């Protein structure tokens, strides 16, 4: 840890085309193909320690202390090293872009970035600008001006409110902080701004920030904001996990949360939000409100190369949104999850370019064993920094946390699992997307694909055969906004219900996009679709068995859950007449036309089914032509058989000997046509079941061999005539 020498410093040397490690690579090959599992794990661990330590004593101590979980993941990294070496070699050969010694020297001095790295990164960045994920300079300036105006409003309100409560000091102030995508510097043109107000102890969240309806919120910041001329819309959400005001101010969406510090009568301008001291005496909502700022600041502190980090994170946020896996509420990734995963990749590859960070992202997380937590820092906290009553994620202490499906741990104290919403279904979808991303980005780096293929739109309604359609409705716009938010927060329960009531045989892929029926009012309804697919772990290989699955209990359980719509703070019922959720089971052919792309069909994509179990890549053109020729020959042979059956004729063998044959019953044309149109499966089964017996009987009776297709067809006809 003191040296901070990453495992993949080996790869940095490989990228600089160094040959001094050939002896180490040969030993790695020997270790990788060792048949004994324990020896292979220990060899991988020893290799890891070889590059992370300098003395024999350190290597021995580290090798004895690393646990088996880390050994498995280190072993995965060894394979990644070889894959990366292959990618770089193929990039240099296929692209015919030899790097001169002068460029090599420049790349060495610039942190190990080669000419191809820089070229791919520039291509990636230019495409991201075309995808409109960057904000213009004028728009950035306007955001800063709006935040400055909001800060002045807060200072004016905090002094006025303090004076009304007997605190006349003019120096009393509060601090405005941002977090989320804006704080990390990866926000887009239409992105909202997540902000937090930290105030003194005498300004309370419920009484002063939100106010009470009984006195018309008088004196509260909510009342101050709604009366301001720049406020276009404002909604108070005091009962959320993170209580906040959702506003539209000067054309920007700004979410404002509040936290008062019990130990401060006045908030200093240089307050350190990463200090554990400010957490003393806070309630659960206050801790969660501060977590956003603390996590964002920790990420920027732990990542060294901010420019490459931001380009890679923008690309992966676009990938997640286009591929339909960007929604933390239903169990996919949110902004924090992606930021932590990319930061971990940056820790492993501190000198890598953005293009290689994107490739490494898919390489690592496609092979990751998700029972192993992803952590940027150690979970061990000094006793002086520990605060009683705060729940700190640590599976070594809290046994239930060991069974969470995905563990992406936030780097700020108290640590939390940011992916606790992930279910078996959404984890399976994420694994498929990781595998697809790994293959496509590998092809991008060797020139066989484009960056746009990585984040091409998901063909959601072409993936599955069966779907669930959820129609969410309310009587008016205000009720619909509240009802839609409540139902959306409970969609994960429907996913879990499908898994539970199907006994693990069925999974659900929740769609993250909302659709609107053009014949209905857009302000009071929306549609959400779930794709249903079999669990690959229970339907793999030859063990597939068709069985009926009743999803009615899962649907009824979900409707009961969302129907129990109450205010968690007061216990009052929030459900109103007109609020409802209708659920329909649809086949692929029954999907409404307004939910499909224009024209009703998706554009052809060579990488859409990459990573999906049970699918194969598109065959080469030669194979397609051969298959077409074989199909045409089978059809011609079938036509000949049909004619012979109609005429009651038989074939003669090669030596032209006459032989008596059993009479073939003459059937009506409609019966023959019906038999000809039998399913291909029945025909193949008939071939397998009757091939030997029919051939033997025909040889004995007629002294000749009948063609396989003719025997099977005659067998089907005879069976139908009995």
Count of helix runs: 24
Radius of gyration: 33 Å
Cα separation of the termini = 81 Å
Averaged pLDDT: 76
Task: Give me the count of strands.
Answer: 9
The fraction of residues assigned to DSSP E strands is 5-15%
Q: Strands of the largest sheet, in order across it? A: 1-2-5-4-3
Q: Which regions have little confidence, pLDDT < 50, spanning 5+ residues?
A: 1-43, 49-60, 62-69, 92-112, 616-625, 649-722
Shape by Cα distribution:
globular
In terms of structural class, how would the helical and strand content be classed? alpha+beta
Largest sheet entry: 5 strands, mixed
Helical residue percent band? 40-55%
Question: Could you characterize the architecture of this molecule?
Answer:
With 722 residues, the chain is α+β, with helices and mostly antiparallel strands. The protein contains 24 helices and 9 strands. It has helices at residues 9-15, 22-32, 37-52, 56-65, 68-94, 101-109, 115-130, 137-164, 181-184, 205-210, 221-226, 284-302, 306-322, 335-348, 354-367, 424-445, 451-454, 477-489, 491-501, 552-563, 621-647, 669-676, 680-702, 708-721; strands at 175-179, 193-199, 231-237, 244-249, 252-260, 466-473, 506-510, 525-534, 580-587. The strands form 2 sheets. Strands 1-2-5-4-3 form a 5-stranded mixed beta sheet, sandwiched between helices. A 4-stranded antiparallel beta sheet has the order 7-8-6-9. The longest helix has 28 residues, at 137-164. The protein is globular and about 105 Å long.
């Amino acid at each position: 840890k003191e040296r901070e020498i990453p495992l993949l410093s080996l790869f940095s040397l490989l990228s600089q085309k160094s040959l001094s490690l050939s002896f180490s690579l040969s030993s790695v090959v020997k270790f990788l193909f060792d048949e004994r599992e324990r020896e292979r794990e220990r060899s991988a661990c020893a290799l890891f320690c070889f590059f992370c330590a300098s003395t024999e004593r350190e290597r021995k101590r580290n090798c004895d202390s690393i646990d088996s979980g880390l050994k498995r993941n280190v072993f995965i990294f060894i394979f990644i090293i070889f894959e990366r070496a292959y990618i770089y070699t193929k990039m240099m050969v296929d692209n015919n872009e030899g790097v001169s010694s002068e460029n090599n020297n420049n790349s060495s001095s610039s942190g190990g970035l080669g000419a191809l790295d820089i070229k791919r990164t520039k291509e990636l960045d230019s495409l991201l600008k075309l995808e409109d994920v960057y904000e213009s300079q004028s728009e950035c300036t306007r955001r800063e001006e709006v935040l400055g105006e909001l800060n002045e409003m807060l200072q004016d309100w905090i002094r006025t409110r303090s004076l009304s409560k007997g605190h006349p000091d003019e120096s009393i102030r509060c601090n405005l902080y941002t977090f989320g995508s804006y704080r990390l510097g990866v926000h887009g043109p239409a992105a909202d701004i997540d902000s937090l107000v930290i105030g003194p102890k005498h300004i309370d969240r419920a009484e002063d920030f939100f106010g009470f309806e009984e006195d018309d919120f008088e004196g509260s910041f909510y009342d101050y904001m709604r009366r301001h001329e720049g406020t276009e819309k404002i909604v108070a959400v005091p009962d959320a996990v993170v209580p906040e005001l959702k506003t539209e101010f000067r054309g920007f969406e700004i979410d404002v949360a509040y936290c008062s510090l019990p130990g401060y009568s006045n908030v200093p301008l240089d307050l350190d939000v990463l200090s554990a001291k400010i957490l003393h005496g806070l309630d659960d909502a206050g801790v969660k409100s501060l977590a956003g700022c603390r996590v964002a600041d920790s990420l920027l502190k732990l990542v060294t190369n901010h420019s490459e980090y931001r380009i890679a994170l923008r690309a992966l946020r676009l990938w997640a949104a286009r591929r339909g896996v960007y929604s933390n509420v239903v169990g996919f990734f949110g902004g924090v999850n992606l930021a932590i995963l990319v930061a971990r990749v940056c820790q492993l590859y501190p000198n890598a370019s953005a293009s290689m960070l994107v490739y490494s992202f898919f390489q690592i997380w496609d092979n990751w064993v998700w029972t192993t937590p992803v952590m940027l820092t150690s979970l061990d906290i000094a006793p002086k920094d520990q605060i009683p009553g705060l729940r700190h994620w640590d599976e070594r202490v809290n046994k239930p946390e060991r069974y969470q499906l995905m563990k992406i741990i936030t780097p700020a104290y108290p640590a939390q699992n940011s992916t606790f919403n992930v279910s078996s279904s959404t984890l399976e979808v994420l694994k498929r997307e990781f595998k697809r991303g790994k293959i496509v980005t590998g092809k991008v780096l060797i020139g066989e694909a484009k960056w746009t293929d990585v984040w091409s739109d998901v063909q959601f309604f072409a993936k599955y055969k069966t779907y669930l359609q959820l129609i969410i409705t309310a009587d008016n716009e205000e009720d619909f906004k509240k009802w839609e938010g409540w139902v959306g927060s409970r969609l994960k329960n429907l996913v879990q219900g499908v898994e539970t009531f199907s006994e693990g045989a069925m999974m659900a892929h929740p769609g993250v996009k909302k659709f609107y029926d053009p014949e209905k009012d857009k302000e009071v309804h929306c549609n959400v679709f779930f794709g249903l697919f079999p669990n690959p772990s229970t339907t793999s290989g030859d063990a597939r068995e068709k069985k009926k699955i009743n999803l009615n209990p899962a649907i009824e359980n979900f409707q009961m859950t969302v129907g129990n719509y109450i205010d968690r703070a007061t216990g009052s019922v929030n459900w109103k007449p007109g609020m409802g959720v209708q659920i329909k089971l649809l086949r692929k052919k029954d999907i409404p036309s307004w939910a499909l792309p224009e024209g009703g069909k998706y554009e052809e994509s060579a990488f859409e089914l990459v990573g999906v179990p049970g699918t194969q890549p598109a065959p080469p053109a030669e194979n397609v032509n051969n298959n077409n020729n074989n199909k045409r020959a089978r059809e011609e042979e079938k036509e000949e058989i049909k004619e012979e059956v109609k005429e009651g004729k038989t074939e003669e063998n090669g030596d032209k000997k006459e032989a008596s044959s059993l009479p073939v019953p003459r059937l009506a044309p409609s019966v023959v046509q019906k038999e000809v149109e039998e399913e291909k499966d029945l025909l193949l089964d008939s071939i397998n079941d009757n091939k030997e017996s029919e051939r033997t009987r025909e040889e004995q009776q007629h002294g000749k061999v009948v063609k396989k297709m003719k025997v099977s067809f005659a067998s089907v006809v005879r069976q139908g005539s009995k």
